[in-house]
Specification:
single chain, alpha+beta, Alpha-Beta Plaits, 3-stranded antiparallel sheet, two-stranded antiparallel ribbon, globular
Length: 75
């Protein structure tokens, strides 16, 4: 069986420490036909006693420009 490996080239277009903001952005993109992927980097980094997560929203490079335009309202 000959299977081709497909590679997606993804680019981060939005980051937040607030999971709900990234979920809203993902929903907006998917409503408009753009697949989006959330990456949670639990950094475990501390500043004083603060531990934080950073959520990243990625899209295929081919969808980058359209996705950025759709998410301008979040800025």
């Amino acid at each position: 069986m000959n299977m081709k490996k497909t590679e997606r080239k993804l680019e981060i277009i939005f980051t937040s420490q607030e999971n709900h903001q990234v979920q809203i952005a993902k929903g907006k993109l998917e409503e408009n036909g753009i697949p989006a992927y959330i990456i949670n980097n639990n950094l475990g980094a501390t500043y004083g006693a603060l531990i934080y997560d950073l959520y990243k929203l990625e899209v295929n490079i081919s969808d980058r420009e359209k996705a950025i335009k759709l998410l301008e309202y979040l800025k």
